[in-house]
Amino acid sequence: MKDLETLKELVASITDWKSLEKMSCKPFKPSILHLAISKDAPQLYREEELIQLKNFSNLLSSVESKPKTHNTGQMMTRKRQIEEMPKEERVTPAMIKKPRSIILVQNRPSPDLPAEFKNRVSELSGHDLKFLMHKRLFCSDVKPNSNRLSMPINEIKCEFLTEAEITKLDERDGPNGKGRLVGVEVTVLDPCLREFTLPLKKWSMQRTDTYNLVTNWNSIVSTNKFEEDQELQIWSFRVGNKLYLILNKL
């Protein structure tokens, strides 16, 4: 029990990537410590690392669920095999679950969107306007080497994707579904109504899957001078079948 409390205090003390790097081995290898940290601070990990940790957790669970044996040497060998397993063997789409449902956050009235955004939606002949979430930017959301905005699915207040888009978020571009995630192209309106085109991807994690705006996110951060703890409202709407997101700076 004391060891568990110590681990919780350690996880709580990690607030940025530099702190995590000091505790990590290079190259990255999944471990029990990384698994515990990723549950409370998934934003500290890259997409490939989160996938490795998810599969590491699945493999550990399968080991622990097997009948106990007195041959402890075999058990230790099995755990070492898991940690030393090549990345291409750890990452298999068949091992990644495909959650479709969104856990609705507190049932509160949606906030009002400022008039300039509503006017722009009307100019674009937009429809299906929805409030998705209130987002406070983490350090990892504004660090140049991260280049992504994370939106945990369990913090999103409503479903905003079509069935076709949900399916596409699980697709990969390599042979046999082993390449990089394809994602869905999204047009993002920043607080000054400038348009940016970014891919939206879904990363599978231990506690909750996360939608992420990637690739060109750094351009939005630098253009708007976003900083850690900046608060945003994120909305969605559609122009025809095309998905748009709105970033309303608070």
UniProtKB/TrEMBL annotation:
UniProtKB keywords: DNA-binding, Nucleus, Transcription, Transcription regulation
Gene3D superfamilies linked: DNA-binding pseudobarrel domain (2.40.330.10)
Subcellular location: Nucleus
InterPro entries assigned: At2g31720-like (IPR005508), DNA-bd_pseudobarrel_sf (IPR015300)
Organism: Glycine max (Soybean)
A GO term, aspect molecular function: DNA binding
Protein name: TF-B3 domain-containing protein
GO CC aspect terms: nucleus
Keyword Transcription regulation: yes
A Pfam match: At2g31720-like
